[in-house]
Amino acid sequence: MHSTAQLILLLVVLSDLAILGTTRLSSCIRGLAAQGLLLGLLPLLIASRLSVHAVGLAVGTVIVKAVVLPWFLAWAIREAAVRREVEPIVGFIASQLLGALAVALAFAIASRLPLPTVQQPLLVPVSLATLMIGFIVLTTRRKALTQVVGYLILENGIYLFGLTQTERVPFLIELGVLLDVFVGVFIMGIVVFHINREFDSLDATRLTELTD
Amino acid sequence: MTPTGLVALVVLGATAPVVPGIVVKTKSLLTGRRGAPVLQLYYDLWKLFRKGSVYSRTTTWVFRAGPVIVLASLIVATLFLPLDGRAAPARFAGDVVAFAGLLALGRFALVLAGLDTGSSFEGMGASREVMIATFAEPTLFLCFIALVLATGDLSLSGMLGTPLAAAWPRAGASLSLVGISLFVLLLAENCRVPVDDPATHLELTMIHEVIVLDHGGPDLALILYGSSLKLALFGVLVVSVLVPRAGLPGPAAVAVLFAGVGVVAIAVGIVESVMARLRLTRVPQLLVGAAALALFGIILQVQ
Description:
The complex is a heterodimer. Chain A is mainly α.
């Protein structure tokens, strides 16, 4: 169980780097869905015993993060007829190097954090790395839709950090967070859709031109 | 140096032309064609060796020395690889740098020979080859650094030999990342599909093939044999990292190695049939991705 969880955590980091490196919006979303699936498997592998809590969290995560949200983003692309390319402000090579730097930084910080020992030593660095890469995607991509993707990666990082405390955090709170994210993305999707209809573009930099 | 290691070295030298044959055969079968025989390269080499040489009057000795240096540097580089999973014929602390240097020397000689012809096509191919090398070499060194950290040994014999087998339970994740990174390097260094298309014969799209346009006869044979040896050599690197063989008896270790190189060749064939060649501007991104993987492997070990 332990080594499988470790493998999945490594795959989460690889999916982060893959999302940073893809040029297409659809493969970006597919990467996000794969990451959601990996995150859904984690509570089952980390929990010391298979409880209703862990299974519920796993099922909820897979449904929301790996099925509903990616489907919704894919719908938004189709409906808003967005151009299929990711438009980065920082180039792909540079953002991939930034991503590698973020991973290094995450591991360096995690080893210095005064945390109670957790059963899965990779969990904290991977969550920090995912947080930072989410932030990179959020800030260095021009499209509103890729900013939603960045926000979701950021949230995945927070979710991973929360997994260190699965035994203590009540089920309802976690479900509440999942619901919040879902509603947040739903609203963002609709906003994105309307921005697109209003301006014929999803370029977020053009939002600075808005006036009363 | 064990007798097994020596036999393995000779067998590797003799069977290297089979490796591209397997790649081509896999590719043909997967795309529904019969394909050239696996031993095709032997026939080609036999044909080329019987031909005479023709040299353009614009070329100098650099052009003639090119193929010989390419092949010689690759043969010497092979001597550093522990084929029986224990020790290589040549080894000293820090021979990884010599290994990378020999690969670079071969490429340098090839590029100079291409430039020496004065043909604009070959100059273009040479510049592309060097551009790819600029990204491939740091990645190779990152892979080596990860291996050094895992095994604590500075020679290829140690990095791919007994200390590697001891390091696997500890650093398995990191070593698999290095293996994947080396596989991407194999594709790039040997001009396989996502980076270059060895089947194309349009000068504007090829990289490696275009540098050797002016070579013919025995010179071309040396280059073709050299590139098959390079493919086999990278296959050995990938298999050695992914399958530690120090626990096996010598002959079994060698057998596993050759079977592994065959599997790598089939994997290359599969990659070639499911992928198209990347745009040239996307190639650095692929290699930087491979470098990021190797870097992640290093981070996992120093955390």
